[in-house]
Amino acid sequence: MSRSSLDWLPQSLREGAQPRTLAAGDPVFHTGDKVYGIIEVVSGRLHMVRHTIEGRAVVIQSSRAGELFAEAALFSDVYHCDGVAAEASDVIVFDRVPILAALRADPDLAEQFMARQARQVQRLRTRLEQRNIRSARERLMQYLLLAAEGDGRTIPLEGTLKDLAAELGLTHEVLYRTLAQLEKEGGIKRTPTAIFLVPGNAV
Amino acid sequence: MSRSSLDWLPQSLREGAQPRTLAAGDPVFHTGDKVYGIIEVVSGRLHMVRHTIEGRAVVIQSSRAGELFAEAALFSDVYHCDGVAAEASDVIVFDRVPILAALRADPDLAEQFMARQARQVQRLRTRLEQRNIRSARERLMQYLLLAAEGDGRTIPLEGTLKDLAAELGLTHEVLYRTLAQLEKEGGIKRTPTAIFLVPGNAV
DNA sequence: CGAGTGATTGACTTAGATCAATGACCGTGG
DNA sequence: CCACGGTCATTGATCTAAGTCAATCACTCG
């Protein structure tokens, strides 16, 4: 569904853009930096991170190959989060000014951009909703149900389980335990790269 | 800052719009309904609600006088949440089609709309970040610091404390206790309509 | 072959959820 | 005008699930 999701960016923009190669952990911007543009992820994975008062790092957004990163920053002066490469990644940097100009000039482009932002908002709302589920088990199940691919049973694992724990707002230990328990009870099956829901074992 | 935030909607759109008066609890749309348009809140307060598997209601967005409600739905076919009036409210309903047409026709309007959506995204991210703070006390403090008005000390209370508890993802009991404790320790002062931070008593 | 990290499991603690009860404060209808 | 049902605010007692600390094993990367 979002495989080649950037086809809509006009060729003229792609030409002025700059490719960069990042190693895992490389920063792409810091909180407070002036916004220079937005980033397309060609391969790998970028994370948007904030730090709580207690120093805990929070992954706020994760963009994978074919997705944009930090779109919302287009309309800000400075970044409000840190951006880092979660793994070795190739990206393309689009300068801010030409993008904004293109959005003004091309209503189709603008509409698509708005539609993406709207989806982004809805996804964030969904995540927020998830967080209102207190039970680790139910939270995880809710996530798995929503994250299941077309067949409704397969959840491919991008990144590590630790990342998943962070996204769910759980400690990794609790996630491991809950997964182990669900597996023992037959609700899910696991491989290193995916989780499978076993139909008929919901709750 | 967001007092008269809807001035940017062109007069032509306002003319075709329909006013409605809502009593507390009145629904404005249900999950799965076809999207008919977006809503401006003239007075009162609208809530976007979802229901978790366990039947708990989650307030996902709250729009107050002068704000738009369910903008993100413009680009969807059906609503993904329930919309209800949190209190007696006056609203104006803008039909979907003319809004979309106006956004295509007017680059300024489109740009402003995109900027709003971007802010929306950032606000949601901030809320998500808040949820990663586990301690009720720190979560509350973080909220108060961010929600403080210009003077950096006053947090006006819209709605009930129960609503605030829901927004923070805490039970109301815990919120009451935490507020009581903070007050006892001198970190905050309270009136029925506002909370005041006492400088020099952070953390 | 270490150093670093992820995955996993055990033991223990605690903060927040839950259950429960009370008083204040509506608004409303008789 | 007042009694009554409803909700909010508040506080106490108790419980439990998630967090925390800790140890082990398997990998991978240089």
Tell me, what's the shape of chain A? globular
Distance between the termini of chain A: 29 Å
Characterize the largest beta sheet of chain A: strand count, sense, and whether it forms a barrel: 4 strands, antiparallel
**Overall structural domain count of chain A:** 2
By CATH reckoning, the class of the largest domain in chain A would read: Mainly Beta
The helix fraction of chain A, in percent, is: 25-40%
Reading side by side through the largest sheet of chain A, how are the strands ordered? 1-8-3-6
Average predicted local confidence, pLDDT of chain A: 87
Task: Specify the oligomeric state.
Answer: homodimer
CATH topology of the largest domain in chain A: Jelly Rolls
SSE order of chain A, as H and E? HEEEEEEEEHHHEHHEE
Strand content of chain A: 25-35%
Determine the CATH superfamily of the largest domain in chain A. Jelly Rolls
Which pair of protein chains has the largest interface, and what are the residue counts?
A-B, 47 and 48 residues
How many separate helices of chain A?
6
Write up this protein:
Two copies of one chain form a homodimer. The first copy, chain A, has 203 residues and is α+β, with helices and mostly antiparallel strands. Chain A has helices spanning 11-16, 96-105, 107-131, 136-147, 161-168, 172-184; strands spanning 18-22, 27-29, 37-43, 45-51, 57-64, 68-69, 82-85, 89-95, 154-156, 188-191, 194-197. Chain A has six helices and eleven strands. In chain A, the strands form three sheets. In chain A, strands 1-8-3-6 form a four-stranded antiparallel β-sheet. Chain A has a four-stranded antiparallel β-sheet with strand order 2-7-4-5. A three-stranded antiparallel β-sheet of chain A has the order 9-11-10. In chain A, helix 5 packs across helix 6. Chains A and B meet through strand 5, helix 2, helix 3 and helix 4 of A and strand 5, helix 2, helix 3 and helix 4 of B. Chain A binds a DNA duplex (30 and 30 nucleotides) through residues 134-136, 160-162, 170-174, 176-177, 180.
